[in-house]
Specification:
The protein is mainly alpha-helical. It has four helices and no strands. It has two domains: 73 residues; 48 residues. Helix 1 runs antiparallel to helix 2, helix 2 packs across helix 4 and helix 3 packs antiparallel against helix 4. It is flat. The mean pLDDT is 85.
């Protein structure tokens, strides 16, 4: 077996692992979403906020995994993507905050703080 063949097999194995990881995260996200819909009326406010933060983290992980699957492991524009999403969301909040409900605004602000921390940790 030549080196090119070994590299290709390794790349395929890695791609398969990424796809399985993506499926796992999406399934967890879906289960938690259903749980939030069904039991939000009996769960504590703190627990709901915690679950929503976990969901936001999963959503970002899903996006990162999709990028890695499409562009490969060497794809290093994660910080650029986060910064672009941060700026777009900042603009969205600026124009739409007066029309938004407090919970939605709070969730977006929390997501923005998470993006800031992630950008700082990447750079």
């Amino acid at each position: 077996m030549d080196d090119n063949h070994k590299v290709e097999l390794e790349r395929r194995k890695e791609l398969k692992n990424r796809v399985n990881q993506l499926i796992d995260v999406v399934e967890k996200h879906t289960r938690t979403e259903r749980h939030l819909e069904q039991y939000s009326n009996i769960s504590s406010k703190e627990n709901l906020e915690h679950e929503r933060r976990i969901q936001k983290t999963r959503e970002e992980e899903i996006e990162n995994l999709k990028d890695k699957i499409v562009y490969g492991e060497g794809y290093s524009n994660e910080a650029e993507n986060l910064e672009a999403k941060y700026e777009k969301t900042k603009e969205y909040i600026h124009y739409n905050a007066p029309k938004m409900n407090l919970e939605g605004l709070s969730n977006l602000n929390e997501k923005q703080r998470n993006r800031e921390h992630k950008i700082d940790s990447i750079r």
